[in-house]
Amino acid sequence: MNRRHRLSRSRDFDAVYRHGRSVSTRFLVLYWFERDEDGDGPRLGLAVPKAVGPAVVRNRMKRRLREIFRARSEELPQDHDYVLVVRPGLAEAAEQRGFDWLGERVEEILGKAKA
Questions:
Q1: How far apart are CA 89 and CA 58, in angstroms?
Q2: Which of 12, 14, 21, 96 has the fewest Cβ atoms nearer than 10 Å?
Q3: 58: which residues sit within 8 A by CB, 6+ positions away?
Q4: Domain limits, the chain
Q5: pTM of the model
């Protein structure tokens, strides 16, 4: 995923949290917000709290989620910002069940957001 397709500034996260909508599942919470300016694709911000695990685990989770999101970004509205919040327990479940299972969890929450 390109850096220009990532949310990195605090004010961008705040805009999504304050003005966006949200859906949640057991392991993930998704916030999304329609940007005013036309973008060249959806942007993703990840929030992986320390409760998920040590830095190595959190960074691995972020890499995997970015890759899953990048693969599905063509299907998403191009003028939206997304913040994906990981809940504790996802890292362990993903390690046990694999990368495909993690992709299914992301599909599940994106499906809820479309509805």
A1: 11
A2: 96
A3: 48, 50, 52, 91
A4: 3-114
A5: 0.91
